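Quick entry between incubations.
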Amino acid sequence: MKAAKFEYCAPSSLEEALEVLAADPEETSLLAGGQSLVPMLNMRLARPAVLVDLNRIPELCGVERNDGTVRIGAMTRQHAVEVDGRAGAVPLLVEAIRHIAHLPIRTRGTVGGSIAHADPHAELPATVGVLDARLLLRSRARVRSVVAEEFFVGPLMTLREPDEILEAVEIPVPSSRSGWAFREVARTHGAFALVGVATVVTLGGDGGVEQIRLGVFGVGGLPYLPDWVGELANGAQPTEALFLEIGVRVGQGLDSRSHSAQNDVYRSEVAATLTERALREATRRALEAAEA
Amino acid sequence: MSMHQISITVNGQVVECEVEPRQHLGDVLRERLALRGTHLGCEHGVCGACTVLLDGDPVRSCLLLAVQADGAEVRTVEGLAEAGQLHPLQRAFRDHHALQCGFCTPGMLMTALYVVGQNPEIEDELEIREALSGNLCRCTGYQNIVDAVRDAAIEMRARVGGEG
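Done. Structure below.
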């Protein structure tokens, strides 16, 4: 339960960090909040030759509210986002963060770290997918922006190249005619989700559904953002029957995705129920927002 | 493997030592600085026994490399009592029988210190339970811990009020 040896450096700028990383990207790990990586080091599941600590790079921290987007530096602590008024423009994000482990984890854990780590049971990957966020990745040679939904390719696997650092997350502020919901079932308070659901429901001027974005996590190797929801829901009335149908189809869609056969049936049923409840709650919030 | 010279303020005292980067803060506190009040349980962030305050925030000392604490202020359970007088939280834990084996207690106390500091009015059982939910206790069943934190908060409020 003690980490193997590694070389350590704590650069004070992003540029310097990218330079160190470029020297040996495959054997270098990036240390963000350390709430997942350090356990892996302690258990020797991860044995990097070099550890680049990103905790002393101020330019990677902070929440900014720009025109229509909230930009969160990758090294911003989860707890800092929880209490930052600017992040309140994206309440789904704040609620998702409240579900991450416990306070003494969130004081260190970072937004970017959780996304880049891509644990299939974690809250943030699915949430940034649902929020249609863009992830800014920087290497020495280039900067690119990746749609969050496409960033995750498997358990602990993302589109980040070994020589890239996740710099920031840009989240569009949801429409004023939208409502959100976040539901999760975990074995104990603060534990990783058995199943979780995040959703944003946007209503049109006629009261019909303009868009539903839905993400389910804990049920496979990566967040499940069903693409058939749009076909089913867009233009439809947000009725109980619709919520139920989407829930049932989510449950059916999960059967082939779960990694533990024993829990398949239970997880699918929980996912179906959470989906239905989340859609109902998000729709209620959207209607309240429309009235306000 | 290179060693790193670090300087940390622990319970108000500046200490300097040389550490290997792979050593976490919990080990350095216990083994290098002989501050063995901080307990190491799971060493992967789940049990909360090793919780200390880093620049005022509760953190797992098993998940923080000591080298990362360079330049920071750390407060451990040894920094609670002043001039031989137990801190109100410590006294409340004793009075309420909020510990049995005592292994989780240092982490409980440090988390509670932060929680009461952030919310001096804290009284609600559910709120206290949620705030301490990252600290596992296998002896008490938690009820006495909740009672102790609520009572300590009252006493700490009275103290602040008395001073003002």
